[in-house]
Write a structure and sequence with these properties.
The chain is an alpha/beta fold. It has a domain of 66 residues: Nucleotidyltransferase, domain 5 (2-Layer Sandwich). The protein has three helices and five strands, in the order αβββαβαβ. It has a five-stranded mixed β-sheet with strand order 3-2-1-4-5. The protein is elongated, with a radius of gyration of 25 Å.
Length: 125
């Protein structure tokens, strides 16, 4: 019995499998990135006015200054402006490492008080 020598490998089945996996990954990634399936909603005349944005960024500087989307605000104004946004709005908290932890916890408590659960803390790698 002689052993056959392989001169080449058939890679067509491997390419087919990889293309199918690529389609699955890209389809799944689009739903994960958007979070929802896009649909056109009907209009309502008695609905509340809400600001619909992709995300809110709350920044806390070293000296205790609060920013909401690059606009300086006070602690009392934060609650008012926060309630203009829907509860599902992603909120990113950008806090200076030398700021007071107490101010950070006040912001977190305020967000939890009003049931904002889509929260993230921005850090550097």
């Amino acid at each position: 019995m002689q052993i056959k020598k392989f001169d080449s490998i058939n890679v067509v089945p491997f390419i087919d499998i990889m293309l199918v996996l690529l389609v699955i990954v890209l389809t799944t990634a689009s739903f994960v990135a958007k979070g929802i399936i896009p649909i056109d909603l009907s209009e309502g005349k008695s609905s509340d006015t809400l600001t619909l944005k992709k995300e809110l960024i709350i920044s806390i500087k070293k000296d205790g200054t609060l920013f909401l989307d690059k606009q300086i605000i006070t602690n009392s104004m934060l609650e008012e402006k926060l309630l203009l946004h829907v509860k599902e709005t992603p909120i990113l908290i950008n806090c200076d490492k030398n700021s007071k932890f107490e101010l950070f916890m006040q912001v977190i408590d305020l967000l939890k008080k009003h049931d904002y659960k889509n929260l993230a803390v921005i850090t550097k790698k």
